Amino acid sequence: MSSAGLLLAAALFFPLVLAICCLSARFRARVLAVVVIAPLPALAAAVLVPEGRFAFFPAPFRLTLVLDQPGAILLGGAALLWSAAGAYAASLMARDPAAPRFAIWWLLTLTGSLGLFIVGDVVNFYLLFTLASLAAYGLIVHEQSASAHRAGVIYVGLALLGEAFLLIALVMLSAMHPDANPQIRSVVAELPASPMRDGTLALFIIGFALKMGLVPLHVWLPLAHPAAPTPASAVLSGVVVKAGVIGLIRFLPFEAGAPLWGSVLIGVGLVTAYSGVIVGITQPRAKTVLAYSTMSQMGLLAVLLGVGLDTADPAVTNLTAYYAVHHMLVKGALFLGVGILATTGGRRLRLALLLTAVLALSLGGMPLTSGALAKLATKPLFGYGWLAGAMTLAGAGSTALMLHFLLILRRDTAGNTAGSPALWQLLPWLVVAAAAFLIPWSLYPAVSGETVSGLLHPEALWKVTWPMLLGAVAMLFVHRLPQRLGAIPEGDIIVLAQAAQPVARRFSDRIGGIDAHFRRWPVAGFVLIALAILLGGVLMLQA
Amino acid sequence: MTPLVHATTPGGFLLVLATILPVCAVLAILASGPRSAARIALATFAAGLAVAIAIATELISSGKALSYVVGAWQPPLGIALRADGLSGAMLVMTALVVVAVGLFAHIQHGLQTDAGGGRAQTTFWVMLLALWSALNAVFVGEDLFNLYVALELLTFAAVPLVCLDGRAETVTAALRYLLFALIGSLLYLLGAGLIYGQYGTLDLLALAQLARQDPALAVALALMIVGLLAKAALFPLHLWLPPAHAGAPAPASAVLSALVIKAPVFLILRLVLDVAPPQAAAIAGQMLAVLGAASILFCSVMALRQARLKLMIAYSTVAQIGYLFIVFPLAAGSADLPPWGTIAWTGGALQLVSHALAKAAMFLAAGVIAEAFGHDRIADLGGFGRVLPISAAAFGLAGLSLMGIPPSGGFVAKCLLLTAAVIQGNPWLAATILAGGVLAGAYVFRVIDKALAVPTVPIVARRAVPRRLECAALALAIAAVLIGFVPLRPFGFLQIGRDGLNLAWAP
C-alpha cells in the first residue's frame, strides 16, 4: 500500500484504535489528553494526500477509502474542528469523573464522522454512518439532566428510523449489482437506469434529511445540540450534521440529474432555511438559537444540492463542500465562543464579544468573511430568477437571527465578573476562529475558479452587504415584538408528536390486550386447529 | 433416474458420536452419582465440541454430505443419519452455545453455597446433555419417526429445565409448555403416520423423490407443519413461551431460547423444501411468511411493553423467530437456481445462527443482572452498566445483532433478506424487516439507556458477581458480532450436500 493509502487508513483507524485502547483502565484514566491528537492523521491526509488516491482492504473487511475534492475539503475542516474541540473538552472536563466515558463516545463519534468523508464502498458507509449516529447519543446525554435525556431519547428514536430508511435505500441501490459490496461511485452511476430510481432517491433524501435536520425531520436537532456539553455541541452542530451532506453528495446522481428530486430538495431546503430563522428568533437560549441557525444553514445546503440535481451539474458537490466547511468552522467557533464568553469578564469580554460578532455575522455573509466567500462562490448557481432572490432573503434572515444571538449573548454576559477563560479553552477557540477565516480564503480560487482580487471589488462587496442591511432592519422591527421570546418551544413541532402519545399508548395497550387473548388456552387451541385446517385445505385445493 | 440411496461416507460415524456421546454422559452421571456430574458434563462438552468441529471440517474437506446407515440396513428398513452444510452449521452452533452455557452454569453453581442446590444442579446437567443429544439427533435425522423421537426427547429434556427451581409459577409455566408441546407432537405423529400409510417410507431422501400432489400428503404436511409451529412458538401459538423462557434459570433460558425452538423450525424447513411438492411448498411458504411477519411486528411491540428484562428477551425471541419464516417465499428458487442457492437462504441460516448466539448471550447477561441485583425490573436498573460493565457490553453487542446494526451476524442476515425482498419486488416483507429492526432497536435501547444512566441514588449489587461469570455472555455476543464478517453472498458451506435433493424441485 502506498504512503497515501497508509495515511488514509490511519485517518480512519487511529481514533478507532484509541477508542479500543480504552479497554485498558490505565489508558482510560488518561484518555482525555489524547482526544486532541485523534483527528490529526485525518488532517494530515486531507492536506497531504493528492486527490483521487484510494486504499483498498481485501476480505473480510472489504473496505475502500477514497479522497476526492469535496471529501478532502470536508475532512480537513472537520479534523481541525474535532481536534480543537477535543483540546477544549480536555481542559473543560479535567475534573469531571465521567470524562473517560465522554472521551470514548467522543472517539467513536469522531471515527464515524471523519470516516464518512473518505469511505468509498456501500457497506462501510452504512457502518460508519451508524457509528457516528449512535455514538453521538453518549455525547448528548452526558450531562444526565432530564432535558438532556429527553433529547437523547428523541435523537436515538429518529436516528434509528433514519438508519432504516438509509438501509433500504442502500439495498435498493445495490440489489442488482453483481458485487455484494460495490463501490459507491459505480452503483450511483448505474442508478439513473434502475427501475427503482425514484424510490431509491426518495429514501436517500429522507434518510439524509433526517441527519441534516430538514423540515419536518428536524425536531431532534434543536433539542440535542444544545443539550450536549459545549465542545460536543460544537462538533455535533459543526461536523456530525454534515454526515447527511456528504451522504447526499455521494449518493445523488449529479452526473445524470433528477429534476423532480432536485425540486423537492430545493423546496424542502427553502422551507427549512426560513423556518429555522423564524423559530430561532423566538428562542431565549443562545445555544438553541445556534442550533436553529444550523438547521437553517442545512436548508441552504439542501437548496444548493437540489439545484445541482436539477441542472445535472456535478460541480455543485465542490461548492456544497465549500459552503459546508465554512459553516462547519464558523458554527464550531460560535459554540465554543458561547462557552468562552460565559467565563470571561471585564475588558477581555468586549474583545471576545467582538470576535463572536464577526463570526456570527459571517453566517449572514459579512463582507470579507468566509460567509461572503461562500455566498459569492455559490451565487452563479442560482441565476437571476426567484431562487436567487429567495437565497438572498435567506441571507438576510440569517443576519437577523445572528443579531438576535448577539443580543442574547450581551444580555447573558452582562453580569460576568472580571476573569479570563482557561488558556486551553481560549486557544482552541482562536484556532478555529482563525481557520474559519483562512481556510475559505485559501480554497476560494480552487473551488470557484475565480481570483481572490475579484472579491474586493466594490460590486462584490455590495452584493453581500445589502442583504445584511435588510436583515438588520428586519431585526429592528422584530426586536420590538412583544412576547416574542419563548413563544415557540424548543423542538417546535415535537409538541405535536407528544400530543399523539396517548394514541400510541392506547395502541400499545390494545396490542397487549390481543396478546393476552391469544395466550388463553381455548383461543390458542382454537387457533392451532384453525391453522391446521386452513393450511390443509389450501394444500388440498392445490392437489 | 436412479433412486438415491444412503451410503455410509467416511467420517459418517461422527454423526452417531454426536448423538450418542451426550447420552452416554447422562448414563455415566446416573451411574456414578451427583458428585462427579459436573466433571463428566464438562468432559463431554469438550468431546462434543470436538466432534461438531470434526463434522464441519469433514464437510468442508469432502464438499459432500456425511451419511451413516445404521447397521448397514438401507431405509425403509433401516435408519440413516445425514448431515449436509446446514446441519453442520447447526451442529457447530449448538455445540458452541451448549459449551458456553455449560461453563456459565458451572461457575454459577460454584457460587451457590446453600445446601439443597445439589439435586437441581445434577438435574440441570442431565437435562442439558439429554437436550444436546436430542438436538443433534434432529439435525442429522433422516427418518420422520426417528425425528419424532428426537423431538419428544427434546421436549422432555426442556420442560424440567423450566421448573428447576420448583417455584409454583415456573411449574405452571412448565406444564403449559409440556401440554402445548405434546399437542404439537401428536399432530406431527399423525402426519407422519399418514405419510407412512401413503408412501410406505419415512425416509426424507426417499420421500423427496416419491412425493407428489395428493390429498393425503397435503393433510399430512399441514398437520406436521402446524404441530411444529406449536413447538416453535410462532405467533399466535406463543402462549407458552414467555412465561417458560422468562421463568427458567438463566442458563436454561439461554438454551431454550437459542436452541430448543430452532429444532422445530429446522424440521419445518426440511419438510417444506425437501418433502413438499413445489406448488404446495409455495403456498405453505406464503402462509408461514404471513405468520412470521405478524410475529415480528406484534411480538416486537410486546417486547417493548415488558417491564421485566427476561420477559422482554422472551418476547424478542418470538419476534426474531418470525424472520426465519419470512425466508420461505424469499428463498423460492427457480428452475436454474435452487432455494439453497439464493441469498435469502443464506440470510435465513445466518439469522438462525446469529440469533442463537445473541439470544443466549442476552439471557446469560440477564442472568448475571438478576444474580447481582436480585430482580430484573428494567425501570429499577438505572446505572447497572457501572456495576456490571462486561454484562452491559455483552447485552449491547448482542443487541446490535438483534437490531441488525453492522458489523454483526444479524446485520448480514437482515441485509440479505432485504436484498432478496427488493429483488423479488416484495415491499411488504421489506417494510416488515425494517420495522422489526426499528422496534428491536427501541427495546434494546431501553435497556442500554438504563445501563448508561447515572441515577441520583447509585445502584448497588446485592452480591458480588465474579468476572468469569460475565465472560461467557460476552464471548457469545462477540461470536454473534464476528459472524458479521462473512461475505454478503450465498454461502458455499450451506449448499454442501444439497445437490442430491434437487429432485423435488425439478420441473
From TrEMBL, chain A:
Q: Topology with regard to the membrane?
A: Multi-pass membrane protein
Organism whose genome encodes this protein: Bosea robiniae
Q: Which UniProt keywords apply?
A: Cell membrane, Membrane, Transmembrane, Transmembrane helix
Identify the residues that the record assigns to the NADH:quinone oxidoreductase/Mrp antiporter transmembrane domain, covering every copy.
Answer: 121-400
The family line of this record is:
Belongs to the CPA3 antiporters (TC 2.A.63) subunit D family.
Pfam families, alphabetized: Proton_antipo_M (PF00361)
* Localization: Cell membrane; Membrane
The membrane spanning regions, by residue number, are 6-24, 31-50, 70-90, 102-119, 125-141, 153-176, 201-221, 233-252, 258-282, 289-309, 321-344, 351-374, 386-409, 421-440, 460-478, 521-541
Q: Which InterPro entries match?
A: CPA3_Na-H_Antiporter_D, ND/Mrp_TM
Q: Which domain of life is it from?
A: Bacteria
UniProt name for this protein: Formate hydrogenlyase subunit 3/Multisubunit Na+/H+ antiporter, MnhD subunit
Main location group:
membrane
Automatic annotation (TrEMBL), chain B:
Topology versus the membrane: Multi-pass membrane protein
Give the NADH:quinone oxidoreductase/Mrp antiporter transmembrane domain ranges: 142-437
What broad taxonomic lineage does this protein's source fall under? Bacteria, Pseudomonadati, Pseudomonadota, Alphaproteobacteria, Hyphomicrobiales
Protein name, UniProt field: Formate hydrogenlyase subunit 3/Multisubunit Na+/H+ antiporter, MnhD subunit
**Which UniProt key words apply to this protein?**
Membrane, Transmembrane, Transmembrane helix
* Coiled coil region boundaries: none
| Subcellular localization, as worded in the UniProt entry | Endomembrane system; Membrane
Name one matching Pfam family: Proton_antipo_M
